[in-house]
Model the fold of this input.
Amino acid sequence: MTDLNTTYLGLPLRSPLVASAGPVTGNPALWQRLQAAGAGAIVLPSLFEEEIEHDAFAVGFAEDHGADMFGEALSFLPKLDQPAVGPGRYLALVEQAREQLEIPVIASLNGTTPGGWVRYAKHLADAGAHAIELNVYDIVADTRITAAEIERRYVELVEEVKAEISVPLAVKLGPWFTAFGNLAVKLQQAGADGLVLFNRLYQPDIDLDTLDVVPRLTLSTSVETRLPLHWIANLHGQVGCSLAASSGVHDGADALKLLLAGADVVMTTSALLLHGPEHLVAMERFIRQWMVDRDYDSVNELRGSVSRGNVPDPQIYERANYYRVIHSWTDIVHR
Ligand SMILES: Cc1cc2nc3c(=O)[nH]c(=O)nc-3n(C[C@H](O)[C@H](O)[C@H](O)COP(=O)(O)O)c2cc1C
Done:
């Protein structure tokens, strides 16, 4: 039997397939199905800095962002006759998840600024969260703020959250940093036990009839795994913390590639919205069969074997690859 055990944030998981934050993990009615389908852990949807500070912040991410765009997804959402979130309700959600599940439950905090609100991390840990994921989703539109300032703020934020908790801390980020590798190391040194690469940037659109700016949440596609794959392959063995892949994981093949690049766990949200919790069964089956076909006994054995440090030509993950890829099209056109 192939061994899928992995360790993430110091937590032993039975599988590297993790249900990432989103409406599916936010619906208690689906938790047992996620666990039965083989999820190694679940990450609850985020509690927002603004909610903690104002308590009566807008309803949930799912409601705001029109989850009814995805037919079947509707049935996965919690009923929103009253706000699905808010600090009190969130704590209750964490407690409920702990009671109902055997797999680790990771609570998620979304915020960008150091401050009093980070004390809430301790309440989440006290409510039973096995770990905290700090989701730093930020759009820095103020042209006076420098990249260095922002990075310093994130490092400070991680230090502050870490100081509040005794459970492990993961930090989830977007990919849009000038020197991501350096930031990754700084966050790890500030106390991050793991990095979740990456959050997706939700870009609004303009309606040409009404000239309204409209929120558009498009689910990911497999091609988006390339960005986390690239960075995980580069960072594997270079940062002393866990690496989780998030974005574009839709099937077992996507997951395998990210494990080969060096991910400790592979997270999925869009695929669960599209196909339901049982999709994890098919993903796991594919991974197991692939491992059997190639004589891998365990995920630990294959992890990182195609990372930057383990390929014959590490430049494939650097600028040289850009040159090659661009010129491959020139050759085709001139043939
Ligand atoms: C409807 C929806 C709600 C989400 N809510 C959260 C959230 O509350 N916190 C968070 O960190 N990420 C949230 N995400 C982002 C996902 O956790 C994930 O990082 C992202 O969708 C990329 O993974 P995927 O390609 O598997 O969807 C949400 C995504 C979707 C589609």
About this structure: The first helix runs from residue 28 to 36. The pocket of flavin mononucleotide is lined by residues 20-23, 45-46, 61-62, 65, 67, 108, 110, 135, 172, 199-200, 217, 219-220, 224, 246-249, 268-271 (CB under 6 Å). The first strand starts at residue 6 and ends at 8. The radius of gyration is 20 Å.
